[in-house]
Amino acid sequence: xxxxxxxxxxxxxxxxxxxxxxxxxxxxxxxxxxGEIGKATSFTRTSIYNYFQTKEEIxxxxxxxxxxxxxxxLKQTMERVDAMTRDEFASMxxxxxEERAQLLKILSxxxxxxxxxxxxxxxxxxxxxxxEAIRTVMEALHRYFPDMTVGQKQDFIYTFFPFMFGIYPYTxxxxxxxxxxxxxxxxxxxxxxxxxxxxxxxxLLGD
Length: 207
Known about the structure:
- It is a single chain.
- The chain is an all-alpha fold.
- It has helices at residues 6-24, 34-39, 45-48, 55-80, 86-98, 101-107, 111-116, 120-144, 150-164, 167-171, 175-184, 193-205.
């Protein structure tokens, strides 16, 4: 276990996660190693293992942080706005994800491998944030659409959260992928994060 105050432990964890986030901007998940992350921190690579045993744990912590930032954004909106139409809610949710491309990018990864490669305490901490995200969106549905039944709200949650996993790969297409689709005769229609999310939410909310 790492020695030092809880504050120092959290600060070093945050530095490791921030280093991973910076690398992820220019490198793929497969390219990033514990060694690369170690080079981007202010302490030795071996010290990282005092806090995270695998890069999957680091990415899971990064995903946890992204969920927490998204939750905070949604709660700030809910504190400011007392009522919304279905169009306004769809636009709000779409904008909130438009600002969290990092969240969507990590969601598009293989969650099975990421969670399997993490120790129980890291997985549990992540699940807390994930659960809070679900509760926050459900709370927003309760507040803005009291006419929706419990079943309708649950259907929204069980459809929208899995839908989020596919937003990034659909809206961020490489030139190589575009060429392959053209050669395969696939009629790909580009949509932004905002557009694809807005249309999905509006369909889930109905008229």
